[in-house]
Amino acid sequence: MGEDRKDRIKLVSSQFGEMKFEREAIITFPEGLLGFEEFKRYVIMDVKECEPFQWLLSIDDPELGFPILRPALVYLQYESELFEEWAEGNTNVQMVYLIVTLDSDPTGVTADLKGPIVIDVNRRLGRQIILISRDYPTNYPLIQSSPSPPPAKETRRQRDKETRSSPLSPSPPLLVGE
């Protein structure tokens, strides 16, 4: 990471070349991401050639980046269901993204509905939450060979009957759902 001006940072990666970002664009993930806990600072990067995907790029290691996608492009009800479970009562503006696994075969491109990224826009804090509902797969195909419905939503009342445990895990990663 280099400094261009006091309010800008410069990153260089083999995939994207030299990039400059405002310091205020940095999003801190206090617990990191699952499997990448040591990397705490990221920026969201738009790459015209990759639209509608964006990239969650590590400031700590610019070679580490994740393609991400807004859930509404995959499954329209996802964000409202997620907020019903997780963000209830939270008044901060939240942005939700799905981590995408790319493949040379377009039918192999998948989104992780089970482990979304949630960002508090006002505080520039991010967190990956793990939904423990069986309804959300980690490899939801973005292009389907035959039409299949998105995951069915289980109601909170149904889940409460199945388990009496707390819906949230107190330690990272945050588990939400049943």
Notes on the protein architecture:
The strands form 2 sheets. Strands 4, 5, 6, 7, 8, 9, 10, 11, 12 and 13 form a 10-stranded mixed β-sheet that branches. This protein has a 3-stranded antiparallel β-sheet with strand order 1-2-3, with no helix packed on it. It has 2 helices and 13 strands, in the order βββββββαβββββαβ. The protein has helices spanning about 80-85, 155-160, and strands at about 1-5, 10-15, 15-20, 25-30, 40-45, 55-60, 65-70, 95-100, 110, 115-120, 125-130, 140, 175. A hairpin with a 4-residue loop joins strand 10 and strand 11. About 10% of the residues lie in helices and about 35% in strands. The N and C termini lie far apart (about 40 Å). By secondary structure, it is mainly beta. The chain is globular and about 45 Å long. The longest helix is centred in the middle third of the chain and has 8 residues, at about 80-85. The chain has a single domain (about 1-175), classed as BH3618-like, CATH 2.30.290.10.
List the SSEs and their pairings.
Layout: E1 2-5, E2 8-13, E3 17-22, E4 27-28, E5 41-46, E6 54-58, E7 65-69, H1 78-85, E8 94-101, E9 110-111, E10 117-120, E11 125-131, E12 140-141, H2 156-162, E13 174-176
Parallel strand pairs: 11-13
Antiparallel strand pairs: 1-2, 2-3, 4-5, 5-6, 6-7, 7-8, 8-9, 8-10, 9-12, 10-11
